Every structure is written in structure tokens, then in C-alpha cells.
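FORM 7B: Structural annotation worksheet

SECTION A. Query
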Amino acid sequence: ETVPECICLARQHRYILLEAGGKMGSGSYGTVYTAVDQVSNMTVAIKKQEIPQSDCTCKEFLVYATLAHHRHPYVQCMLDYFVSKGRDGGHCLHMVFQTAETTLYRVWQTPVCQTGRLATAAVANFLFGAVSGVGHLHDLGITHGDLSMPNLLVQNNTTRVADMGSAHNAQDVLLGCLLYTSDAADEEDSV
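SECTION B. Predicted structure
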């Protein structure tokens, strides 16, 4: 089901990019911009992803659509989305997210972490958020696929799992097998 263009335009004009283009960063699956939601006056992050004309799905969007029905405090949620015209007859999907102060990667690069003086309570909070968020994804049958410090957002000393661009349905990863075994275990059984 496609979203009518008039709704997409209304959603698109709801957000105003910050600074010179508001670009926060880019990666394999899109570019992230900082914007202000004119309705809530809240700062948001908008991930723009090109979708070629030959492809009508966006795996990351489908994961976030599932997560919208199963929210969790340690998993980034999609607040809104809209579609615009892209290059070569394709479209651009814009996913709107809550922002965070920083990422765990940036925290790790600070002098406090580099000299081993990060409080044990802070480390426990970071780990608790990451493990709780990943546990929630796994409960829903989703594997993250790219869990790393840059994909763990930090807000008020807690982490949220973000960036579902490499996420998979666990059944897809296991290729329909209900029981996972390593190659080594299979070789031992055959001996």
C-alpha cells in the first residue's frame, strides 16, 4: 500500500533541516539529517534512503514498522516517515527518529573512558540498555546484524539500539532451520 502524495508532502513540510543542510552523517543505507518537527518543536533525526524504481521494499522500514507496534525503552523508535521523489524514477524514504546526545562510540573515545575512569554504574547502564534492547529484538524474531558502538545511542547515561539497516528476521538467518548447530557440531555428529 502506498501513501498518497498529498500526505507525504504534508509530512515532508512538517520538518525543517537544521544548520547548513543539517547532515549528521551517512552510511551504507542512507544519510541522516537533524531537523526540527514544527508540530512538536522537537529536534529529530531524519534518515533519507534512496529506493530504486526496481525495488519497492525497504527492509529497515519494515523492521521499524514492526517495532512501532512493540515499543521498548532501549530500542530506537521511528516517529514518522514520508516518501519523496528520488533520482531515476525511484523514491526516497525518509524515516523520522528521536535523537540522542551521542553514541557509545563517541563516549568510548572520551578521555574518561580512555584512561579507565568511567564509573562502573555508567558501564552497567550502557550494558543493560544494549542487552535489554537486543533481547527485545530477539523476542520479536529480529537479529540486528550490525551491533556496534556507533549503533548504540546514548541519552541520559542509557543506551538505545539503533540503525536497523542490516536487521533480519531470525528465520531468514537460520534459513528455515528451527535448531541452530555450528558446522563443527555437524562434523562431530557425522564421525
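SECTION C. Observations
The CA atoms of residues 72 and 136 lie 7 Å apart. Helices lie at 5-12, 59-68, 104-108, 111-114, 120-139, 170-173, 183-190.

SECTION D. Sign-off
Analyst initials: ____
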